[in-house]
Design brief:
Elements: H1 3-16, E1 29-30, E2 36-40, E3 44-45, E4 51-53, E5 57-62, E6 69-79, E7 93-103, E8 106-115, E9 119-125, H2 133-136, E10 141-143, E11 148-149, E12 160-168, E13 171-176, E14 179-185, H3 188-191, E15 198-202, E16 204-212
Length: 232
């Protein structure tokens, strides 16, 4: 066997130890501003059907039934005028997606951290029996270890990026700028959550367009009134 054949065989063998999550076959549809319940901060309209974030903290969820598949295209516009540390006291600049957002205390986060280090992190926030931010605060976070992960580029002001997440049963695949950057299992407990997708930002100014996977015939239709207890 030639050296090139050996290398090719080893490459295939190595990749087989990192199974990818099954790619979603669901179609994504745009999420309009009136379909989002903003539980913290503000969202305003921007150009080209995008939404704008200019506040240190923004949290929102889609007020309709969705699958755990989402994509967001965003332009990073730099730091907010004022920075606010996380509840832990850590200073972080980031933007990302919520999956299975059952409530403020139980959900999955897929976050692209910009500062102090550029990386994609998947976290499970779990607080059994608690549902509001007043009850759980910033407790219950666990960063989920990936089977396979890749680096993401440093975030430059004015740059445009995409972040996609697709969950099939327990297997999650995250794609950033067209590259698979995180593959792993969220675990049985997390997979049993039931809730829509959403978005979150911390200390970052952005313009973004969000897309979600809706049940057939439900794209563009908002659900009941926003929950009063959904704040984070």
């Amino acid at each position: 066997m030639t050296n090139s054949c050996v290398c090719a065989f080893l490459l295939v063998l190595g990749l087989s130890s990192f199974p990818l999550a099954q790619a979603s076959s669901r179609e994504l549809a745009p999420v309009s501003r009136d379909m989002l319940c903003v539980t913290e901060g503000q969202l305003s309209a921007a150009s080209q059907n995008q939404l704008a974030v200019n506040v240190p903290k923004m949290r929102a969820y889609v007020n309709a039934e969705t699958a755990a598949d989402a994509a967001v295209r965003f332009t990073y516009l730099g730091a907010t005028a004022k920075d606010i540390p996380l509840g832990s006291g850590e200073m972080r600049r980031q933007f990302g997606l919520k999956l299975l957002a059952q409530d403020a205390c139980n959900l999955i986060y897929v976050m692209w951290r910009f500062e102090p280090e550029s990386k994609v992190v998947v976290s499970f926030k779990s607080n059994s029996g608690q549902h509001t931010s007043a009850e759980c605060g910033n407790r219950g976070y666990t960063n989920i270890k990936a089977r396979h992960s890749s680096k993401v580029p440093a975030m430059a002001t004015g740059s445009t990026h995409t972040l996609e997440a697709s969950l099939h049963e327990q297997d999650l695949q995250v794609v950033a700028d067209g590259m698979v950057v995180w593959v792993g299992s969220i675990g049985l407990e997390a997979s049993q959550l039931r809730g829509p997708i959403g978005v979150r930002s911390d200390n970052a100014r952005l313009n973004f367009a969000l897309e979600a996977s809706f049940p057939s015939g439900h794209a563009g239709k908002s659900g009941p009134a926003c929950r009063d207890d959904a704040g984070e």
